[in-house]
């Protein structure tokens, strides 16, 4: 039986657009960024693309040689596994068929390798016959590094999830089918099948004027790790559904109590309902926990550097609450960027945690307005600020960065420039993708 979300109607539906959306997807106007750490930025002079493996001859191109190949312009809808869809996207690239001209192989599968250790494997038939391209332009402009530039594998009929970013090499695998992974293989894990559950709202907490925490009792909750998230699904009486992902802000030690903090997006579809309409006693459909990369537990040790912007504090708060529940003394520093003091989510609780004198230090920077007598930072996070706040690279801290894409990109890049190992910098991006 379908669960209907009380008083949820959703946005007015454009039947033409809605008919092109797979179930559970929502349209975005922006272009969300998904990556696990600092974005690789390869100089074009160093960029190469090669075909190896079970082929009769190896092939290799420099950037200049690659750009001299015939190109095609492709207009396609793309659908990401993280629920967003973008319609009528325009790409320019080289067809995989062109790259394979003159290559003789009996292989049935291909694996694409990219910067950062990402791999994607899929049947050869899914990337041939005009189905896949190595794209270098998006919407008439060079593809940005955040979206896989200078070139990425594009397989529109399988969705955005199937591509790895910044492909550099393709290897033919004979008739061997490998389990699909879209993060580095060392981080892969077999996950149980996720099911939708009903949680009941037991508390609503006003964190700021725009952010509310919802505490839900979720019977038979399987437990989570600090940093994981859930999918939330709302269903209207006519069957229309909207899904969004929200980080879990509560500690794993809270049992069946799961807290989500939702920042209201004014033109959003889901966040205004959760913040303004959902009441104590109401039920909410959710699925999770999800994610195994952007997580931390006390047994992972430290030092631990947390950097947040806006509502990016949510998964980091789960880590801090977990740390407190375990009475851990792992050296931890939080650098939190907010527009004003009134926009600081969990402000009183952060002050309380910092006052425990157990190795946690909290640093705030207010970017738009500061109260009289403010002694903290009053600018966007920059190189000097990170050099002052972060642990020394020689201490090999684990760095967790969460917030809007521009902040995450700038912080992750700067941390690596300051000498931190890229594999010790983990990122999660928050931002408006439908609200």
Description:
This protein is an alpha/beta fold. It is built from eight helices and 22 strands. The radius of gyration is 23 Å and the shape is globular. Mean pLDDT is 86; it is low at 161-166 and 175-191.
How far apart, in Å, are the first and last alpha carbons? 27 Å
The major beta sheet can be summarized as: 6 strands, mixed
Task: Indicate the percent of residues in helices.
Answer: 10-25%
Query: Tally the helices: what do you get?
Result: 8
H-E order = HEEEHEEHEEEEEEEEEEEHEEHEHEHEHE
The best one-word shape is globular
Write down the overall mean pLDDT: 86
Tell me the layout of helices and strands.
Layout: H1 15-18, E1 26-27, E2 48-53, E3 59-62, H2 63-67, E4 72-79, E5 84-95, H3 96-99, E6 109-114, E7 119-123, E8 133-138, E9 141-142, E10 152-154, E11 167-172, E12 196-206, E13 211-217, E14 229-235, E15 241-247, E16 257-263, H4 271-277, E17 283-290, E18 304-309, H5 313-325, E19 332-338, H6 347-354, E20 360-366, H7 383-389, E21 398-404, H8 405-417, E22 425-430
Parallel strand pairs: 1-5, 2-11, 18-19, 18-21, 19-20, 21-22
Antiparallel strand pairs: 2-3, 4-5, 5-8, 6-7, 6-11, 8-9, 8-10, 12-13, 12-17, 13-16, 14-15, 14-17
What key attributes describe this structure?
six-stranded antiparallel β-sheet, 435 residues, 32% strand, globular, alpha/beta
């Amino acid at each position: 039986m379908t669960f209907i979300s009380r008083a949820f109607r959703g946005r007015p539906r454009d039947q033409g657009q809605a008919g092109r959306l797979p179930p559970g997807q929502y349209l975005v106007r922006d272009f969300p960024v998904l990556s696990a750490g600092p974005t690789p930025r390869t100089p074009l002079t160093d960029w190469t693309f090669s075909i190896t493996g079970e082929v009769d001859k190896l092939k290799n191109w420099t950037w200049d040689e690659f750009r001299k190949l015939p190109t095609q312009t492709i207009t396609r809808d793309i659908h990401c596994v993280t629920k967003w869809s973008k319609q009528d996207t325009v790409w320019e690239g080289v067809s995989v068929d062109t790259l394979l001209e003159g290559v003789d192989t009996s292989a049935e599968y291909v694996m694409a390798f990219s910067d950062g250790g990402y791999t994607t494997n899929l049947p050869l038939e899914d990337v041939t016959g005009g189905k896949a391209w190595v794209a270098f332009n998006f919407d008439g402009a060079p593809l940005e590094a955040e979206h896989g530039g200078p070139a990425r594998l594009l397989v529109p009929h399988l969705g955005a999830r199937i591509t790895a970013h910044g492909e550099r090499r393709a290897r033919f695998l004979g008739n061997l089918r490998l389990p699909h992974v879209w993060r580095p293989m060392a981080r892969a894990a077999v996950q149980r099948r996720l099911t939708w559950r009903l949680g009941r709202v037991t508390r609503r907490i006003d964190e700021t004027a725009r952010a509310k925490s919802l505490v839900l009792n979720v019977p038979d909750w399987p437990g989570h790790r600090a940093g994981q998230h859930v999918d939330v699904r709302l269903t209207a009486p006519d069957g229309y559904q909207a899904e969004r992902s929200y980080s879990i802000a509560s500690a794993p030690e809270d049992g069946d109590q799961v807290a989500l903090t939702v920042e209201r997006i004014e033109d959003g579809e889901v966040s205004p309902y959760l913040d303004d309409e959902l009441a104590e006693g109401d039920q909410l459909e959710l699925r999770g926990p999800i994610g195994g990369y952007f997580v931390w537990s006390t047994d992972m040790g430290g030092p631990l550097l947390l950097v947040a912007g806006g509502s990016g504090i949510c998964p980091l708060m789960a880590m801090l609450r977990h740390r407190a529940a375990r009475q851990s003394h792992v050296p931890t520093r939080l650098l939190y960027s907010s527009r004003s003091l009134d926009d600081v989510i969990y402000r009183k609780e952060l002050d309380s945690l910092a006052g425990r004198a157990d190795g946690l230090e909290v640093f705030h920077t207010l970017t738009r307005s500061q109260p009289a007598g403010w002694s903290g930072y009053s600018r966007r996070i920059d190189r000097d600020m990170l050099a002052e706040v972060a642990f020394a690279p020689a201490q090999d801290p684990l760095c967790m960065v969460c917030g809007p894409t521009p902040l995450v990109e700038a912080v992750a890049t700067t941390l690596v420039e300051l000498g931190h190992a890229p594999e010790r910098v983990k990122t999660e991006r928050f931002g408006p993708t439908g609200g």
